[in-house]
């Protein structure tokens, strides 16, 4: 079995109150409660505002030693500047997440805007901007990036191609190295629809069969109606079942 990390894209959702978070549980304890159910979290808040060291250190202190964080890069870099004149911003971003999360820092996710289509110039500008010392992941939102030359360049540079389930994009599992990253946004209703267990089982087997993948990070972003929690638990259960079957336990 590969090493699996299954969690949600964010945790601070008020509509999860009494669907996931117990009534009466104060918001300051929501992260601790989340950590009782999942051992990884994708930090989406850093997409909207530059990460704060105090917040990162707080999450670090409250999580278990084996906990792993994925961190989404600020949209200032990916959407507004689109990696133009962003070297200092990237250096500051990498530096603060490393300082705040230390050994619990996992993949670093860069989500590109839907309007940005593939060109060789854009691909090179992006990949040459990334610090290879980190586990970088690129999530494209325009279908033109599902292209062999993109996969080959990312594989050559040790960058992960983010697979995703999205109403308007391919849902293929695309391995470009030992770390595989997959996001489930909800389909057909974006950020809402729960996934049937059949889809989760198929996805599990596709990831397990992917080479040269050794580690998989899977995050649910269908947060409306707490579908992410339901599906996250279902995927955890199925991966545990497979592990038992393979070990003969």
Provide an overview of this structure.
The two termini are 14 Å apart. The mean pLDDT is 97. Helix 3 packs parallel to helix 5 and helix 8 (197-209) packs across helix 9. It contains nine helices and eight strands. The chain is of the alpha/beta class and 249 residues long. Strands 1-2-3-4-5-6-7-8 form an eight-stranded parallel beta barrel. The protein is globular and about 50 Å long. The protein has one domain: Alpha-Beta Barrel (TIM Barrel), CATH 3.20.20.410.
Fold blueprint:
Blueprint: E1 3-9, H1 30-35, E2 40-43, H2 45-48, H3 53-62, E3 68-72, H4 75-80, H5 87-101, E4 105-111, H6 120-129, E5 136-139, H7 148-157, E6 160-165, E7 179-184, H8 197-209, E8 215-220, H9 227-247
Parallel strand pairs: 1-2, 1-8, 2-3, 3-4, 4-5, 5-6, 6-7, 7-8
Helix pairs in contact: 3-5, 8-9
Write out key terms for the chains shown.
single chain; eight-stranded parallel beta barrel; alpha/beta; 38% helix; TIM Barrel; 249 residues; 9 helices
Explain briefly what this protein structure is.
With 249 residues, this protein is an alpha/beta fold.
Largest sheet: 8 strands, parallel, barrel
Fill in the CATH topology: TIM Barrel
Top CATH class: Alpha Beta
**Span of the ends, CA to CA:** 14 Å
Shape: globular
Q: Give the class from helix and strand content and strand pairing.
A: alpha/beta
């Amino acid at each position: 079995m590969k090493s699996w990390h299954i969690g949600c894209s964010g945790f601070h959702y008020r509509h999860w109150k009494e669907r996931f978070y117990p009534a009466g549980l104060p918001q300051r304890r929501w992260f601790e409660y989340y950590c009782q159910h999942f051992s990884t979290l994708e930090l989406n808040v850093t997409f909207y505002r530059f990460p704060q060291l105090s917040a990162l250190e707080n999450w670090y202190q409250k999580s278990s030693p084996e906990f792993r964080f994925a961190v989404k890069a600020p949209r200032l870099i990916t959407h507004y500047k689109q990696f133009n004149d962003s070297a200092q911003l990237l250096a500051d971003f990498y530096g603060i997440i490393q300082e705040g999360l230390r050994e619990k820092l996992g993949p670093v996710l860069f989500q590109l805007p839907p309007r940005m289509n593939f060109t060789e110039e854009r691909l090179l500008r992006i990949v040459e901007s990334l610090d290879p010392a980190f586990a970088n992941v690129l999530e494209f939102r325009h279908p033109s990036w599902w292209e062999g030359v993109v996969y080959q360049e990312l594989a050559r540079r040790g960058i992960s191609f983010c697979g995703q389930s999205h109403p308007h994009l391919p849902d293929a599992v695309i391995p470009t190295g030992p770390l595989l990253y997959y996001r489930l946004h909800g389909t057909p209703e974006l950020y809402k629809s729960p996934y049937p267990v059949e889809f989760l089982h198929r996805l599990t087997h596709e990831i397990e069969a992917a080479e040269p993948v050794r580690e998989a990070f899977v995050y649910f972003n269908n947060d409306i109606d707490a579908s992410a929690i339901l599906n996250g638990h279902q995927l955890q259960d199925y991966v545990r079942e497979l592990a038992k079957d393979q070990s003969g336990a």
